[in-house]
Amino acid sequence: MAVQVFCNVCFSEAHKPTPRFSLTSCGHVICEICLQKGKKDECLICRTPCRTVFLSKQTNPDIQSLFMGIDTLCKKYSKELTQISEFQEKHRKHLLAYHRQKTLKLEESLKKVTQQMHQLQCMKPSEQTTQLPFSSTSRNPLSIPSRKQNAYSSYSLHPSHPSTSEIMESMEIDPVPSPMRKV
């Protein structure tokens, strides 16, 4: 033991010929000779009920640490603290990596949903426009174009294939879903 041990009653120090020392549960150190002079289970210093433990190399390490030098304790506990700190840091990093991955997945999902919503919003205006019933004034996409049309239009270049927008203009859209159709 690095710290000087002495009896709190007779102040004798620990030497080879001296008797063993005990530590009381109230925190006093008493030599074996003084301990025999007092009452059993009572501290000679503060007169309170207490338990005693003989100090030796087999004593609990927590009790032994009370008598170690501060430099020795610092080395011992700094090593333990370093191990604990590294352990906790490793687990914090692992948790952070998990949350980063989860955030990336959520951001990707949000981006996909936002794109889908944008696509749906772009489609809605053309679907929501009210279509007039087919009449003689509406354009027939399969009719031969007049000479007044622009020479660069799809009719003049490909008279057998009408453009998608022209086909859409002549189509009627039923806003009521069919009972046979799955929603």
UniProtKB/TrEMBL annotation:
> Where is the sequence biased in composition, kind Low complexity?
152-165
Question: Residue ranges of the RING-type domain?
Answer: 7-47
For this chain, one GO molecular function annotation is: ligase activity
Q: Which Pfam families match?
A: zf-RING_5
**Which InterPro entries is this protein grouped with?**
Zip3/RNF212-like (IPR042123), Znf_RING (IPR001841), Znf_RING/FYVE/PHD (IPR013083), Znf_RING_CS (IPR017907)
Statement: the UniProt record of this protein carries the keyword Zinc-finger: yes
Annotated GO CC locations: synaptonemal complex
PANTHER family reported in the protein's UniProt record: E3 SUMO-PROTEIN LIGASE RNF212-RELATED, RING FINGER PROTEIN NARYA-RELATED
Q: What is this protein called?
A: RN212 ligase
Query: What organism is the protein native to?
Result: Aegotheles bennettii
